[in-house]
Predict the 3D structure of the following.
Amino acid sequence: MRVLIADPVAEEGIEALRAHAAVDVKTGMSRDELVAAIGEYDALVVRSETKVTAEVIAAGKKLQVIGRAGVGVDNIDVEAATAKGIVVVNAPGGNTTSAAEHTIAMMLALARHIPQANARLKGGEWRRSDFMGTELRNKTLGIVGLGNVGSEVARRCGAMEMRIIAYDPLVSADYARNMGVELVSLEELLQKADFITLHTPLTDKTRGLIGARELARVKPTVRIINCARGGIIDEEALFNAVEGGKVAGAAVDVFTQEPAKDNILFGCDRILVTPHLAASTAEAQAGA
Ligand code: MLT
């Protein structure tokens, strides 16, 4: 059994695989290099960087399994893999806590202008009155997607005395109620939320879920967080909404094109950005 690990994964994971198979770690391969190499391997392990396209899958003559160290499988052509009888597996729980904590860090950073205040103070400006913030307590949090991460965000934000509503057509009202969350329509969530956080996978159904039409329905004081996947929210529409005063601020960890080198969102001071860091903790890397 030969395993190719094409993205960085924790040493513990590599050692566990080595107990059962011959493992090669080759990260940063180009698409052509991956296509040329994959024919030798029975299993492929990736994170989000490597794109496992239909071309890669077709070249994987011996391939039996594609392991996604992490949650989102949007970088893998699951349909092409399934058609060839190749199993795609992920690690759905490994980075849940880290992703939830990063979301809350983004929410607090937005509410209290922490990155901007940090930059101004280090630039020699003591400007307390420029950074009037808002409390999370008694605010309405709208969670789009009440899966693993959305649920953990709900639990934590409940402890911060937020009122929590969620839109998720796939979960029951009972599941939500047991967490102190009220299930609502997307329309109602957009209209009522003071903070909106996205926690859906990127699929054909969720691509562009939040666009100009949706952003026209929110409160002008709303702050939006996306630590799920680029593409769920339309980046240009978000930029225009924040610049145009229709949305108070946004915090974005994930981008339509990654690595994101020159994204439209970088041009707005009221949009905080981090480079897909939600799962970047020692615990999550080992767990996934
Ligand atoms: C995930 O889907 O697991 C996270 O976004 C982290 C990653 O892409 O590696």
Remarks:
- The first helix runs from residue 11 to 18.
- The chain has a mean pLDDT of 97.
